[in-house]
Amino acid sequence: MLKKGLKTPIFWYLLVIVCVSALILPTTVLAGGGAWWDVEPEPEDPSDFYDSILYSEIAPKLREIEKNSNRVKVDVIGQSAGGRNLFLVTLSDPQAMGRLGQYQAIRNTMLKDPEKAQEMIDKFGDFKVPVFINGSIHGGEYPGTDAAIRLIETLAYEDTPEVQNILKNVILLVNVVQNPDGRVMGTRRNANGFDLNRDFIAQSQSETRATVKILTEWNPMITLDLHGFVTPMLIEPTTPPHNPNYEYDLYLQWALNQAYAMEDELLVQTGLPALIPYRDWEDGWDDWGAQYVPMYAMYHGSYGHTLETPSRTEVGVDAHYAAVWGALKFVAANREAMLHDQIEIFRRGALDLPQMLIPDELLDQTQWDQYNLMTIQEFPAAYVIPADQPFQQSSHQAARLVDFLLFNDVEVEQASQSFTLDGTNYPKGTYVVWMDQPKRGLANTFLEDGPDLSDIIGLTFYSPPAVWSHPLLWGASRAVAEAEIAIQTTPVNNADKPSGSVSGNKAGAYAYEPTSIAAYQVTNKLIDRGVVVQRASSAFADRGISFEPGSFIVPADSSLANELANQHGLDVFAISETPENAVMMKEQKIAVYADEGTRHALEVLGFDYDEVGRSDVNDGVVENYDLFLNRNRSWGGLDDDGRASLTRFFSAGGDYVGLRSTGIQMAIDAGIIDVDFDAEDGNAIVNVKYSATDAVAGGFLDEDYAFVFTAAWFTRLGAGVVSSAEFSVGDFIVSGFWPGWQGSGAAGSPVVVHGADGDSDTTLIGLDVTFRGHPENTFRLLANAIYNGLD
Ligand SMILES: [Zn+2]
Question: Which pTM value belongs to this model?
């Protein structure tokens, strides 16, 4: 097994890492038990403009190439939301294909010891760099996948000097069809309705997580994401604003020159021109957000580019192919210097070196103001994430956050002793994310509050949001250490599972609080199982312990209490009796007219529901349900039959949950609640003050965080309407981009309210509690609104 001449200390070091990394290499998962290349044909919606390859033809095609070329390996790296396979093609010269583990090991060393990696690469001689190609993440943008396959065939079979030169320098990683569902259905989105190129912050979809795994395992030096359609062909880098968490100077010099190389090759091969937003536009096409594939990849050291092919026809395939070919030739010509600067990105992070401004010769002076405002990031020394109460608002969400960070290749450690930060003494076992780490930019973009950009004149975003912040929006407490803290920490590979407890004895009943998503998940399961679950409609005290409004009560069954504690990590309390105002819970039949984020939240929380469309509502379908959850449909958008049907539904005691402006307006138009409201554009993380007595606000901190995307708030509450939550008074914006929020009148205004009209309960929420599946902390607010109809 051991090759002559490799028995050096470096070899042994590599061997260890190869063995370790072999454990985390993608495994081939076979859907349906058959070989991955046996794909059942199904009705598909191909391109209307050229003979695009069908999804069902891709696997047999890749298998054929794999069999006929010793340069190609195909792996199934996961499944789409609709259960279809995702294919990763790894392609290089045959010698490299036998040493992929070694290449990955050196890529890992780039993170662990960037300076040593540089030495190893210098000695290695012909070290090849990984280039990642992502095919057609938007299903209806067909040419990306066809161009990717043409590229694979060229490099698998041909022997021109250009092909030889590329194979000598590159390991190509091709995610051939990033969105199988969208390709089959001819849609931008996957089968869950998610735009995958907006999902790299939340990572709620399996397709996204499969790509994250490729990026963390390989740290590709280049990422090319193949889209359509912009004329002339659009090749990034972008206009401002640029996120300050990037090492943008290192990125830009290579990304810009590589864009020029793509432009040149496009012209040579197709005669078509290109536009490069960085060079050609002042604003409107930015790389601020980590929700996009190439921008997310930049945090793993990639020179990332979105490519927008200009044509829906075969010309669109030609253009993608030509541009990618230009990039590959550019990499072959500049590999060593580009790699040196990629390692420099990690070295700056690992050694906590300062960021640098964009070199003058690359700077577009018309964009200077925005660079000057945003380019240099001051990183804190560490983020501190307590594991348990009383320092942590949710041990479940803390564990979720830590596991998410680790999955994203962010280093997390755990304190070996207690320590004090800003007057708080944190126990041993508290998580610490040191910011002197190779991927500090990624760590910071997940963990910071984000800036408030509202007052920057002339700022535009191609596709908001401007902020995310996982701890704030996921409901995991975290502290910021601006200066070094002198403590011992050890690396962790996964978060500790939240440990629950059962307190007290001689139970008349057991209670647990609505403070974690887990509490809702298990509640919905227990109701399904037929367990009697009740819900306290106000705060109560029992045996000297105070319980949140909305707390859950189950019978005095100690094995059930132990199950809740041991399997679900809940703190369960023996209480003397069920509080008087407790309401019996039952499964509600829920009709949902909402977006993908809301549906995702309902699934996470464990609610069963049916999606209804406009014609269903017009046909009276909602009358078969207990509750109508509406985010997207206006009263005026229904026909007379639909409005009459909903009126009957409400008169018969049907409950309503309305989200954002549209859902709120429908309740007003239907006459089921007496309120006025106002709304403004803007997206931001906001401070919200929750009622201490209202069950819709149950389980939240008195002051907590939420997200708005076009905020709606109430300017008048009629008789009997209750406010559950308000925007905090004064400066309620934590971060984001809501120009003019100061004059909006939103500060201190109700933002979640409810009222009753006979037996019909209505709850209205002006926050965006489920935006693209990201703000997990407020998923519970949606559940409280649904439970509010129980009576
Ligand atoms: Zn696209």
Answer: 0.94
